[in-house]
Amino acid sequence: MSMNERKLKILQAIIRDFVDTAEPVGSRTLSKKYNLGVSPATIRNEMSDLEDMGFLTHPHTSAGRVPSEKAYRLYVNELMNKKDLSDDQKNAIAHELYDNVTELDQTIEHAAHILSKITSLTAFAMTPNEELETIKFIQFLPVDENTVVLMIVSENGKVQNNAVRINFEYDEEMLRILSKSMTYDYKGKTFSEALTGDIITSFKSDIEAMNGLTSSLMPNFMKTLEKMLDANLYMDGLMNIFNIPEYNDLDRAKMFMELINKKEDFKKKLISRDDGMIITIGTENKDEDMNDVSLITATYRVDGKLVGKLGVIGPTRMRYDNVTSVIDFITDNLSKTFKLTGGDGQDDDEPDDKY
After folding, report:
1. Model pLDDT for residues 308-353, shown as the tens digit of each residue
2. 41: which of 33, 70, 170, 237 is 20 to 30 A away, CA to CA?
3. Structural domains of the chain, with CATH
C-alpha cells in the first residue's frame, strides 16, 4: 500500500486538527473543516488505509483517529513547514533578550522563560560546556573583618561569587595584590586546567603575610571553580502541563514532574544529544521514562565554539512547526546577542538540523 498525495493531504489535516483540539478526528470533521476535494466515504477509506499503515491509531472509546508516533515523524521530516514568525513576534523576542543582557547565565535563563511563555510548554536552557570556558579575572572583595567575597568571571560573562569566612587579619591592598596575582596566573585557563594546578604552590613568592590569607582562601577558590564547572540547567513553565489535556490524568502528570525534577538525570540526557535541532518523539527517546513525550533541543554558540542547549519537552501532540520556529529564532538571537559568530548567527561548520 503506497502513501499517495491524497493520503498525505488527509494525514496532514488529521495531525493539524488533533494538535489543535486534542480530540480524535473523524471523517465528517475532516470533510466539514478542510477542503480535501473528496467525499466523506473516500476520507473514511483513506483513514482506514492510514491506520493499517501505522500512521493512525483508533481509541476504543471514539470513532475518530489520532496520529501515531510514525505520523508525527513523517510530519516532521516531510510535511512540516516552519512558520515564519511575524515581525511583531520577532521584535518582541529580540527586545526581551537584548534588554536582559547582563551575565550570560541570566540571559540564558531568560531565554528559557521566553520560550516557555510563547509555546506554553515546559522549556529549558543549559549554559555552555563549561569545560571549555576560560577565566577572565579573579577578584577578592572585602566585606568585613571576617568575610571576603571571591569572584571568578569567565571570558563569556559567567560569574560565580562565593562568600568566604576567614580567621586572618587582612587589608584591601593584600586582597588587591592577591587578585592581581591570581588573575595573572589563571587568566585564559579553562576551569578544568585551573582545578588541576597546584594553586597554593604558585603563590610561594607572595609576601609572608599573604600566605596565611592564601591558605584560607584557596580551598574556597577550588570549590567555586567546581561550581562553575557544573553545567547550569534552567527550567521554566513546569506548571504549563496542567493546561495540557494529556496531563489531566494525574498519574501521567506525576510521571512528567518526576522526570523533570530529576535534574541531574535530565541534564545528562540533554548533554548526550547531538548539536543542531534535534526532535525525538515518544519511543525514539532512549530512556523508558521519556517514551511518552517529545523532546526538542537546539544548540547556540558562544564565540563560535562553546555550545549550550535550549528546548522544550511536552506531549507528542505538539505544534512542531511553531515550536521549532521559535527555538530557531531564539538560539539565533542568543548568538547575536553575545556577538558569538558572524553576521548571520551561524558558523560555517554549524551542524545541519537532524529532526
Report:
1. 889 999 999 999 999 999 999 999 888 777 654 333 334 444 445 6
2. 70
3. 5-79 (1.10.10.10), 87-129+231-337 (3.30.450.40), 133-229 (3.30.390.60)
Q: Which residue has better confidence, 163 or 34?
A: 34
Range 152-158, long-range pairs (CB < 8 A, 24+ positions): 152/221, 152/224, 152/225, 152/228, 154/104, 154/191, 154/228, 155/303, 156/104, 156/128, 156/302, 156/303, 156/306, 156/338, 157/103, 157/104, 157/338, 158/103, 158/104, 158/105, 158/127, 158/130, 158/133, 158/228
The bridge status of strand 56-57 relative to strand 147-154 is unpaired
Q: Given the C-alpha cell 505520523, which residue does it identify?
A: 71
- The share of the chain scoring above pLDDT 70, in percent, equals 77
The position carrying cell 562553575 is 228
CA distance 94 to 71: 34
Please give the model's pTM, rounded to 2 decimal places: 0.71
Residue type, 24: P
C-alpha cell at 28: 465528517
Q: What is the DSSP string of 24-86?
A: -B-HHHHHHHS--SS-HHHHHHHHHHHHHTTSEE--TT-SSBEE-HHHHHHIIIII--PPPPP
- Rounded CA gap, 108 and 113, in Å? 9
* 140: CB partners within 8 A, 6+ apart: 148, 149, 150, 151, 175, 178, 179, 217
CA 217 to each of CA 54, 158, 170, 185, 355: distance values in angstroms, whole numbers, following the listed order? 63, 21, 12, 16, 48
CB 258 within 8 A of CB 250: no
Q: Which pLDDT value is given to residue 203? A: 42
Alpha carbons 29 and 1: distance in angstroms, whole number:
25
